[in-house]
Amino acid sequence: MPNAPLVPTVRRRRLGATLRRMRNQAGLTLDEAAASMGWKGPKLSKIENATLGIRPNDLHSLLDVYSITDPEARAALDSLSRDAGKRGWWQTYAGILSPSYADFISLESDAEKICSWSPLLIPGLLQTPSYARETISGITTTRSPEEVAALAEVRMARQSVLTRPSPPMELWTIIHEAALHQRFAARPTTMREQLRRLLDASEMPNVTVQLMPMAPTAHPGLLGGFSLATFAQPLPEVVVLENLSGAAYVEGEDIAPYALAFQHIQATALSVEDSLVRIAEMEEGLRK
Fold first, then answer.
1. I need a surface site. Which of 18, 23, 149, 256 has the fewest CB within 10 A?
2. Can you tell me whether residue 141 is helix, strand or coil?
3. pTM of the model
4. What is the largest CA-CA distance in the chain?
5. What's the average model confidence in pLDDT over 212-229?
């Protein structure tokens, strides 16, 4: 992947896509909507395609043109517009984060809720520092020890979304039991500490942990892990697919199969109560 400036362009892209959808719902062509603002068509086209920002006053006027009167919808778009050019804390790590991973962190920081299915690893938002270092070191093939340490720092910093005051993000994660049976030779206590972290996190009011047992019935999650991020309306949901190069995204009508798949995975997994009992038993077993 070619190098690119590490900027939170994903926010501008989401704003542009939402404004395009609103224009279409209003039944206006690009030129008609632009004319209502006293603009030429190319200017609005650049805003919709995320190559040009939009000032808050212009955004409010454009929403008037589209007859968007809901205060919460207007506030969500206003916030997205104001934050589109802001530098996130993750830009301190510009030298080691790929643009797609930076976009992923930006999405995560804006999300109201994330539903994740993790068949192979503990999700990053619930990892301990030791588990993060072990897995990042094993997964990456070209990173130096210093870069592994920095990426682990990023993973820990991401977890602040769960404790932020305004309000914390809601996380519902389903983890395959197989991920909890891993043992790391470098530090044998890593998994015991990680299991304790899951139990502690599950006591947070905004965190729900479920476990997929080793012998469930077949379910859609067999095809791989994913995260479904939900944002303040009218911003659309996004599915995040993590991979070796960072992350890939699914948007629009293609979201529906993932939302349905997560419901099936939820129904197949152990109940929340039984999941925590199983995790506690595994954690106790590692103490012996």
1. 256
2. coil
3. 0.83
4. 73
5. 92
